[in-house]
Each structure stands twice: as structure tokens, then as C-alpha cells.
Amino acid sequence: MYNITVIPGDGIGIEVSNATLYVLKSLNIDFKFTEASAGHKCFQDTGTTIPQETIELSRNADATLFGAVTTVPGQKSAIITLRKELDLFANIRPIKSYEDLSSLYDNVDMVIIRENTEGLYSGIEEYNEEGATAVRVITRRACKRISKFALDYSRKNNRKKVTAVHKANVLKKTDGIFKETFYKVAKEYPDIEVEDRYVDAMAMFMITKPQEFDVIVTTNLFGDILSDEGSGLVGGLGLAPSANIGESNALFEPVHGSAPDIAGRNISNPLAMLLSSVMMLDYLGESHEARRLENVIIDLLKESKILTPDLGGSNSTMEIASEIKKKLE
Ligand code: ATP
């Protein structure tokens, strides 16, 4: 039996979590789901966006499923806190196009692996007389760990090439270390082709020739921006899943946020969270059930009959979940 901590959060996080649990309960796997709170509503109820109890429930679970939270300026970000507390250093964001779904490209299949713990998101930012500064922290340890993770991931998932993305011509020291460490680690992976690109050029190539990329590894902010760009290439935020992986914990979440503009109307697309749960099943070693669920989702998209409004359909969140459950059975 797997112990899964579920953090629905706020807004559409709650709707897509409900839909996902409804589907997961129909798989041939024994799960124990424990709900934990975090986010803005949690702050209003308890005075904190992420109670210690939630952190411990995630730490002790086999995996965590995270919906989405509303982060109010000035409040501690629940997801960034969790990533730090559990040292979830690798953020995996697959960018994959689905047949027959109208998107910019129909033959894209890349994975962005983003360093999750440092870079410009170090949280070290201060005002001074002139304005303010933010500190971009890059350590050799984190560069080595994320490079190794990306290369191991490629090997394990039969991927052929890893592209390191940086801006070492301008950020000579910080990205100099990132690039140098990547190539050093890559020497131990002669079976994987490696290359590097400047982030600005990469932003363009992802639009002009996305088929050329396989696995991309990069620092925190660049990874955040490129992965949203990537999701726009292939069907948008409603279809973008992600995983946050550490040495002993893992958390799976849709890339989208709590989307207050559509929350409560039962029209949010649950597929990003369902695809995140496919990544969770793979992480747990349940690849048979992972493929079964993934194939049903691919089928649903191919048929293009039952879809939420963001994909041009008129069905509700729970109608998608019911259809998937029916197909699984
Ligand atoms: P947050 O501030 O919590 O990050 P947000 O609404 O600012 O949330 P996103 O959730 O990233 O940002 O989404 C931007 C917009 O994309 C949403 O306002 C919504 O209209 C649309 N969107 C995002 N996710 C979905 C989804 N699962 N289904 C349908 N539309 C979505």
C-alpha cells in the first residue's frame, strides 16, 4: 500500500485534486490518501500558508500530490517552502504534443529538468539606496547534482541527448560553474550526446525547431520560463504536468496555479494533474498502471469529444474524470 499525502490547496487546485483522486481510486493499486492543508485558505484558517504538520505528512509519505495554491504577496509560498524543506532539487517538466489536438506542433517530445533550490530564486533579495538587489546563488554541489540527475534520467528513459542551457557569456562566474560542472559530469555518460545553448537562443529554438531537443537541464529561473514557453507549444497549461524529486521525497503537481478567474465553475482541466499522477505512478514503480492511465488520456485527447473549454470543448472537470474512469474500466 502507498501512503500519498494530498494537498488540494486553493481555487482550481481543489477541483483538479478531486477529479484526480476519483480516477486514481479506480486503478488496481492500493492507496491510502491523507489530505493536508496549505495555501491562502489555510492561512486564513490557521495563520500560516503551510503548517508544520503538512510538511511532516509530505516528508513521511511515499509521495505527495499537490493541486495549486494562491500565493498572496507578503505571504510565505507554500510550494517553495515544501521544495526547500524536502530538498526537492529536481523539477521535471515534460513538454509533449498529443496527436490530433490543435497545438503549435504535433511532434514535440522534450523534458525540461530545472534546478529547484538555488539560482535567482535563492530568496536573498534586499533594498538598498538605489533600488534593490537579488542574489543568484550557484553552488558546484547543486550543479553536479542536477547534471547527474538529468543524465541519469536520460539513460533510464532512453533519451539520447541532454542540452545544458545557461548564459555563461554574461554570467561568467555563476553560469561558468554550471556549464563547466555539466561537461565534467557528462564525461561519465559517453552514451549520451551532450551540448549547451545560451538561454536567449534557446527561447527562440524552442519555437523554431523544438523537435531537435530531448532533455534540457538548466538553472532555476531559466527553467521556470522555458517550461512555461514549452507548455504553450503543446496544448497549454491545462496539459502541463510536473514532478519535484529529491533524494528521499517526491511531489507531483500541475504546472498551472490556482486560476481564481475560473475557480468554482467546474470547468478547469484536470489533465495536467492527472498527467502529474502518471509521473507519480512511474516514480512509485507502478509503470503498468501508469501506461494504462496515460494511454486512456492520450485516447481521450485523440478522440477530442470530451474536453474542457481550454481545449475547445464544453465538458466539466468531473465529466473528464468520469470518462477516464469509464475508459479505465
Ligand atoms: P496563480 O496565481 O495561483 O499562479 P494564476 O491564475 O495566476 O494562478 P495559472 O494558473 O498559471 O495562473 O493560469 C493562468 C490562466 O490559465 C488561468 O487564469 C486560467 O484561465 C488558465 N488555466 C490555468 N490552468 C488551467 C486549467 N487546468 N484548466 C483551464 N484553464 C487553466
Q: How would you describe this protein?
A:
Helix 5 packs across helix 6, helix 7 (199-208) runs parallel beside helix 8 (220-233) and helix 10 (287-303) packs across helix 11 (317-328). The longest helix is centred in the middle third of the chain and has 17 residues, at 140-156. This protein has 11 helices and 12 strands. It starts with a strand and ends with a helix. It is globular and about 55 Å long. The strands form 2 sheets. It has a 10-stranded mixed sheet with strand order 2-1-3-12-11-4-5-10-8-9, with helices on both faces. The protein has a two-stranded antiparallel sheet with strand order 6-7. The model has no long low-confidence stretch (mean pLDDT 95). The chain is 40% helix and 20% strand. It is an alpha/beta fold. Strand 11 (241-245) and strand 12 form a beta hairpin. Bound molecules: adenosine-5'-triphosphate. Adenosine-5'-triphosphate binds next to loops.
Number of strands: 12
Q: SS-based structural class?
A: alpha/beta
Using the CA coordinates, give the radius of gyration: 19 Å
Strand numbers in spatial order across the main sheet: 2-1-3-12-11-4-5-10-8-9
Percent range of helical residues: 40-55%
Which features does this protein show?
binds adenosine-5'-triphosphate; two-stranded antiparallel sheet; 10-stranded mixed β-sheet; globular; 329 residues; alpha/beta
